[in-house]
Amino acid sequence: MIVIIRPEQSLAASMAFFETHLEDCTGVAVQRVVEEPEGYKQLICAIKYAAIDTAIVTSQYAAHALAYALKLNESRVHPKRIICIGHKTARVLVNFKDLCHVPTDATSEGLLNDPILDDIEGRKVGIIKGTAGRTLIHATLAERGAHCHDYPVYRRQSIPINHDNQERLVKASVIIVTNGEAIEQLTKHPVFVNLKQKTWIVPSQRVADMAKRASIDTVHISAGASDAALLKCVNQILE
Fold first, then answer.
1. What angle do CA 221, 167, 206 make, to 5 degrees?
2. Residue 75 clears pLDDT 80, i.e. is over it
3. pLDDT class for 78, splitting at 50, 70, 90?
4. Domain check: are 132 and 65 in the same one?
5. 52 and 106 share one domain
6. Are residues 47 and 109 in the same domain?
7. Domain boundary residue among 156, 172, 199?
8. Which residues pair with 4 in a beta bridge?
9. Residue 179: CATH number of its domain
10. Does the structure show a pLDDT above 60 at 236?
11. Which keywords does this Swiss-Prot/TrEMBL entry list (predicted)?
């Protein structure tokens, strides 16, 4: 059985996709996404006063925050460019698609290798993200001479793992997880002792490193966190 672990808000859409392609799969939500009001306020203020010329948007949840801030500021100056990690993220910003660029590799590392950042020195970069993770982007761009500021507009709140979900996880042959915080949550639960020997799929090297530190033996890295990229990795494993 394939178990897909995604935040509560996005699990149903992912399951609708996977169930059309896989016979034996199920979903488990161990987190829900919660807005961070202070991060929203800071982002709205930054847009209003043109404090960002390059916006980096790390997820669809971050994209919703930027779309809201831009809508409030419709008659004013927008960032000169918006760099979105993943096409799902870019689709949220469809009203600003002329400003958007999506790196081919939908990971932090792929973003940092994209030629669009070759002229980043001296630019005002706003990194719109969750409260955890993505530190590599800030650190690397600051080293390249950019003026970086993080806007943490959401956080992932843990959901208790009930008995049914514990059983699904124990029966899994492959576990797909899309963020490192979910792995950290699972390591704190007694069920994790039964999960270390399973095959895991993660969306980036950063999350793979977290999985390895948690003593997970078999970790595969997909080409990003999109459902299509994750399914492709599943099929490669099962071939």
1. 20
2. no
3. confident
4. yes
5. yes
6. yes
7. 156
8. 27, 176
9. 3.40.50.10090
10. yes
11. Lyase, Porphyrin biosynthesis
Nearest CA-CA partner of 53 in 108, 120, 145, 7? 120
Q: What is the pLDDT of residues 25-44, one digit of tens each?
A: 999 999 999 999 999 999 99
The 8 Å CB, 24+ separation contacts for 19-23 are 21/231, 22/231, 22/234
Q: What is the DSSP letter of 65?
A: H
Selection from 21, 39, 194, 149 nearest residue 4 by Cα:
21
The residues, any chain, with a CB within 8 Å of residue 159's CB and separated by 6 or more, are 8, 29, 30, 31, 32
Count the neighbouring beta carbons within 10 Å of the beta carbon of residue 140. Answer: 17
Q: Tokens for 2?
A: 């394939």
Query: How far is 55 from 90, CA to CA, in rounded Å?
Result: 12
Q: Which domain holds residue 231?
A: 2-30+159-238
- On whether both 94 and 171 belong to a single domain, the answer is no
Overall domain count for the chain = 2
List, for residues 107-166, the tens digit of each pLDDT value: 888 899 999 999 999 999 999 999 987 789 999 999 999 999 999 999 999 999 999 999
Sign of CA dihedral 10, 12, 13, 15: positive
Q: Two tokens at 207?
A: 């999350």
